[in-house]
Amino acid sequence: SPPRAPAPRLPVEGLDGMYFIETANVRSVRADAHYTRVHDGTRERMCPWSISEAEAQLDPSLFLRVHRSHIVAIPHVALVRKEGDGAVLELDGPSPHRVPVSRAKIAEVKARLGLANRRHA
């Protein structure tokens, strides 16, 4: 079967029901038990998707799984910093937040950010 088109929006829980965040506004998605929490640059909201489902639904040209429990929106990465064996990314927005990168994903993250093979990063 042909690959499905990326989801244009993610469902999130609000106080009075389920509503939707445009994927362009999504900064990060993190696993929380069988569900996920979606950060829109201001706050996190619960999403009924698992991290695997979120990874499958989101546009792979814009989003990258950087850790077992974390996906980030590459266009919203404002800062990358080495930390221990891994790295930390800061995502932009009114409330910037940080997301860990596993050691196994550092090379791919650097390549996606245009930092491959540079010594300073």
Structure notes:
The chain is 12% helix and 44% strand. The model has no long low-confidence stretch (mean pLDDT 93). The protein has helices spanning 51-57, 106-112, and strands at 9-14, 17-22, 28-32, 35-39, 44-47, 63-67, 70-73, 77-83, 86-91, 97-101. Strand 3 and strand 4 (35-39) form a beta hairpin. The protein is mainly beta and 121 residues long. The protein is globular and about 45 Å long.
How much strand?
A: 35-45%
* Topology order in helix (H) and strand (E) letters: EEEEEHEEEEEH
How much helicity do the residues have?
A: 10-25%
Q: What would you call the structural class?
A: mainly beta
Q: Report on the biggest sheet.
A: 5 strands, antiparallel
Topology:
Elements (H helix, E strand, L loop, with lengths): L8 E6 L2 E6 L5 E5 L2 E5 L4 E4 L3 H7 L5 E5 L2 E4 L3 E7 L2 E6 L5 E5 L4 H7 L9
Antiparallel strand pairs: 1-2, 3-4, 3-7, 4-5, 6-7, 8-9, 9-10
What attributes does this structure have?
3-stranded antiparallel β-sheet; 121 residues
Produce a short descriptive summary:
The chain is mainly beta and 121 residues long.
